[in-house]
Amino acid sequence: MRVALNIFIFCSLNATVWAQESYTRQKITPNISMKISDYFQIMPPQQLLDRYASSRIPIAMFTTLDGSADLGINQTATQWGSNDIDILLDFYKASIANLYSHTDFIQSKIIKVNDRQFIVFEFLGEITEESLLGRVSSIKKYNYIQYALYKSKVLLFNFNCSANDQQKWQSVASEMMSSIRLK
Questions:
Q1: 73 closest CA partner among 50, 109, 48
Q2: Four-point Cα dihedral 23, 27, 33, 39, nearest 10
Q3: What Rg do the C-alpha atoms of the chain give, in angstroms?
């Protein structure tokens, strides 16, 4: 019995590792494509409503088979000029810092992906709340976000998972984000 259990665990871990390292290029819209880990699936509509209640429906939302990590693609409604990338970096960095009780930025810069400028923020964000009874609860997430100016709007590519899963997903998030193509 113990041998069978060890074989099952070994096979399950190998399947998970294989899935995370296998990617398929997906056409998100006619003008946006990227590699998505084969361990991800399109997020079911009810799960999207439960996790990300918002007035703006994302362009696309993916989640892992076990629901432990999410990848979203969205577009802002706000108009921006083609030379506003430096302003956007400062604007979004301040916005991110205001969303969390504590933020540890791993990277915060402008990079080139397939000859297009992207703002990239990779960070650990923690939200700490104190209840009326004095108990403190904390949620810590690993985030990898890229922004691109596109047709006077900002496209947002957002990956997140539990901070405890950062090592598991960091290279996968980087691989997916570095594969973005915009026409």
A1: 48
A2: -30
A3: 18
Query: 96, 104 in Cβ contact below 8 A?
Result: no
The answer to whether the beta carbons of residues 126 and 102 sit under 8 Å apart is yes
Nearest to 70 by CA among 149, 172, 147: 172
- Domains present along the chain, CATH in parentheses: 2-182 (3.40.1000.10)
Distance (Å, whole) CA 30 – CA 44: 21
Q: Are 161 and 119 in contact (CB under 8 A)?
A: no
pLDDT in tens, 20-73: 489 999 999 999 999 999 999 998 877 777 777 666 789 999 999 899 999 999
State how far the Cα of 107 lies from the Cα of 126, in Å rounded to an integer.
16
* 3-state DSSP assignment of residue 81: coil
**What is the per-residue pLDDT for 9?**
43
Place of tokens 């259990």: 5
Structure tokens at 31: 């003008």
Residues 6+ apart with CB under 8 A from 33: 25, 26, 27, 180, 181
